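Morning!

This is the sequence you dropped in the shared folder:
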Amino acid sequence: MTYSLYSRRIVHRFKVQLMPPFNLSSSTPATFILAGIPGMEKSHIWISIPFCFMYLAALLGNGALLFVVRTERSLHQPMYLFLSMLAVTDLMLSTTTVPKMLALFWFSAGEISFGACLTQMFFLHFSFSAESVILLAMAFDRFVAICYPLRYAAVLTQSAVVKTGLVALLRSFCIIFPCVFLLKRLPFCGHNVIPHTYCEHMGIARLACADISVNILYGLAVPFPAVVLDVVLIAVSYVLILQALFRLPSRTARHKAFNTCVSHVCVIFLFYIPAFFTILTHRFGQEIPHHVHILLANLYVLFPPLLNPIVYGVRMQQIKENFMKVFLCPSVRFLQE
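The structure's back. Tokens below.
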């Protein structure tokens, strides 16, 4: 009996020594390590230079756009209010990821706490979902303005615009927030290096030492179909818009309506094409090198925020005129004095 008890104690002590160095009450790691762009670590500094300039230009462009819309009362119309919402979501999309990315490139500060990683993941996907709803609302705005111009003021009131913004927030929250719980339920057994520059849902889930089929199914069954539905509704709106454009008797009116639609279509392509290309290459492009996947994912959070203000500033006459009025006219007056 004494020998048996002694043997059990030795076995127990051996098992304790072999246990991984994690808190026994939780299998959640304290921190994750963002690896950056695997295989291109020596080029991180050089890659960070254009990324930094693109981010600063996105901050400047979207900030200027918001300031112009807020300052000029003539722009307090549904189309420009939706444009302001788009600028806010663009700023959220880039600011959620780029500062940490630059810290990683410049100072090798890849360590991020589990809570901060989940927060970054949530706001990244949240801003993507919200921007998709706003683009759908902008398509509906153009549809009503061109197909039912006499009912435009009655349909798209300021109250309707505010409700649309709330719907974008609520839908995005309801779709993305469950991902936090789906990740928190997973056990992590020592794997804490994320081969990416920011935290995203499947990147975190793949580190778990458990079955992640629920996470995969949820991503394919809820957020992805919701965005695809937005794309389908936008496409239907523009088919009806094109039919209405060809029926307009005035060539000038047709040209003016076509110009506003072209700006919106350009923004739609800038947003959805990089996003879907990133998703599809991530799912099915196993032959594409991993560093190419990461570079595409980084450009996806930089290109739309950078180019959207430029597209609207160049294509929309009212934005261009009011921008010059707000920023250039005071400078001219100051020089004349």
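Headline: The longest helix spans residues 114-147.

More detail when I'm at my desk.
O.
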